Give the backbone structure.
Amino acid sequence: MATSALDPLPDILIALPVVILACKAGAQLVRRIGQPPVVGEIAVGILLGPSLLGWLWPQAGAWLFPDSVLPYVGVLGNLGLLAFMFLVGLELDLGSLRGHSRTAVAVSQASIAVPLVLGSLLALAMYGSFAPEGVGKPQFVMFIAVSMSITAFPVLARILTDRGLYRTRVGALAMACAAVDDVTAWCLLAVVVAAAQSSSPFEAVTTALAALAFTLAMYYVVRPLLARWARRAERAYTESLVLVVLFSGLCLSAFGTDEIGVHALFGAFLFGVVTPRGSRVIERQAARLRAFTVPVLLPLFFVTTGLRTDLTLLASDPRQWLWAAAVIAVAVLAKWGGAAGAAGLAGQNRRDAMSIGALMNCRGLTELVVLNVGLSLGVIGPDLFSILVLMALLTTAVTSPALDLIRRGRSGEEPTAPPVDGPDTVGAAHAGDAVAGGDVVAGADVVAPADPSEASDASGRPVRRPAGVR
């Protein structure tokens, strides 16, 4: 294949299908062994980068991802990521706290506080070895602490649904805890980003106040306007126009937070949070957006992450592996231990408390988003980035087998009734979406699961699979 510096299109037309098909194959492969698809997609992204392909066959890596292609792959992957963050915000329903609010808040805050403390202590020890030149200790410590406190809300939903636990008492509580955790963690990351991009404390405070004003404007001004527009959209607008408005809105909201000095991802997520639920036309267009971005654009983000991840950096120095082991140990101990301990103190039995801890320890795609933000800001370097990506992959991969081991022999899970109004699950398929074989089908009212075991929860009642969660 001839590479043209003037026209990168031929190179892009090769790289895109290779990445998309490889990630799809990886996702299908790990599903066969009971893992969420995101584990396979992260692994494929790493394997296509310098950790394997670039190490074993550098000529093939350079051929597949020439310099002319990388910026376009990155832009398309980031667009997919923005759309995904909008969908996460749209599917984040704090109504799941109903009946679990006190326990959920206590467990989620403990599962953030403990990693923040232990992560800060670890970061202080790592600062001299891993902090890039010019990065202040406060920014480095805050970022590492926040990265230890992340829970992958969408992946957690997928794991619960695949195991028939979505409508059980422990499943509902875990989702409520993850919802509070997600909101808190994003707020903390916004503070870290503002501090990292500001040259003085005054500028950091100004950025934080501007972000707060933007959030209040989105909630109290944009949200009511969107609600009125959604009611009119049911009868007055074509569905294609609704899709255009949703995509334009998430882009403009992302642009707003990026201009403020807080990452564009926050704007896309916030637009999803304020977009009205319950509108069938919005749900159908969100399903169509999800059906394209999740399988087609999002894998490009995984390969961009993989190209930034170089595990050979660890092999060159045995001390790096010791630091990697310390990072993984602190991440698991702090997150799992903090959540499980708080759940036990809140009155949950030992098995349920350990299950909640295992679920809150799942980091998935959300952690990769945070790590890429840190690398882009220059708060962490490639070596620590690679260690933290490895931590994200392992903590996500261990969640499903750990949950199976903890709940082995458990029969007759207590189901919980879905809420009377609003979506009946957080991150689940909306009324207009269905999933067949893991893919979203817009406009359907039922789910035809690929695996009969996914058709019902432990009580035998049908359960919807989350639409597009990773």
Q: What stands out?
A: The beta strands are 433-436, 439-442. The first helix runs from residue 9 to 31. Residues 112 and 149 are 5 Å apart (CA to CA). The two ends are 34 Å apart (CA to CA).
